[in-house]
Design brief:
With 269 residues, the chain is α/β, with parallel strands linked by helices. The chain has one domain: 3-Layer(aba) Sandwich (Rossmann fold), CATH 3.40.50. It contains nine helices and eight strands. The chain has an eight-stranded mixed β-sheet with strand order 3-2-1-4-5-6-7-8, sandwiched between helices. Helix 4 runs parallel beside helix 6. The protein is globular, with a radius of gyration of 17 Å. Bound molecules: NADP nicotinamide-adenine-dinucleotide phosphate. The site of NADP nicotinamide-adenine-dinucleotide phosphate has 31 residues, from helix 1, helix 4 and helix 7.
Amino acid sequence: MKTILITGSTDGIGKLTAMKLAKAGHHVIIHGRNKKKLQTTIKELVGVSDQSRVSGYVADLSDLKSVENFGIQIATNYTKLDILINNAGVFRSPVSKNNQGLDIRLAVNYLAPFILTNDLLPLIKKSEEPRIINLSSAAQASVSLKALAGTEKIGIQEAYAQSKLAITMWSFWLANQEPNLNVIAINPGSLLNTKMAMEAYGQFWAPVDKGANILVKLTTEPKKENHSGQYFDNDKGDFNQAHLDAYSNILISSLISETEKIIKDKNDK
Ligand SMILES: NC(=O)c1ccc[n+]([C@@H]2O[C@H](COP(=O)([O-])OP(=O)(O)OC[C@H]3O[C@@H](n4cnc5c(N)ncnc54)[C@H](OP(=O)(O)O)[C@@H]3O)[C@@H](O)[C@H]2O)c1
């Protein structure tokens, strides 16, 4: 039995993955921003699992201070975390910026997992087989450090694609920094039938199952080869090439420096 934290597991791919992992007997820690949806999801999970193996937390990941508090709560309540799936994500949103003036997509899809993972690293390192799975996408675009810092305005689609390349670049960096961890960035499959895909494009190409099944596989399958620091593209069904920027040490270094600066500014305010 593994202890698995899945962010954004009150809907879509995250929720279905949580159901499957709970059914398989793992301890699943779910997370969402909406208390009612979280409670409903917990009930559904308890229906297929054991109450003692399901827990849930509410945190708005667009608020970076709330991300930090979430990390503190997990670190207080658990001694070890085997798997962290940074799944929560946003495309369309009624608000375009967070309380720090940062683009909501860049904050939720990239800065939040960066902060949460750093805060949980001591717990993850206690696992015998630690894994961090970061949700990327086929949509990846070169990251503007100005947009990341909130000083350049960009469109919704562009911000989403930049957030997904940023999480991919950081995944590769983290895998390099922490060779004992297994860090993978993954495109779960394009246009899977979820709230996000329907809001963004009004259509879907494949069922949610496609994304949940690959997350379950990458989470639980015994490690045969070392794929840490790689990108799994579920449109192709295999590890594949990410955007070229993800292989530039110079671009990755600039991204990490700017990210650390933005996070420090948040802490100083
Ligand atoms: N669906 C696709 O075709 C596709 C393709 C490529 C990549 N992805 C990625 O896969 C991941 C899951 O997407 P999905 O399609 O399953 O989307 P979804 O159905 O909209 O689910 C997203 C989850 O993230 C949560 N979330 C959103 N904003 C949040 C915030 N500010 N704080 C905390 N939680 C927040 C949502 O909470 P609520 O339930 O309250 O909304 C929900 O639980 C995302 O990272 C997405 O970018 C999806």
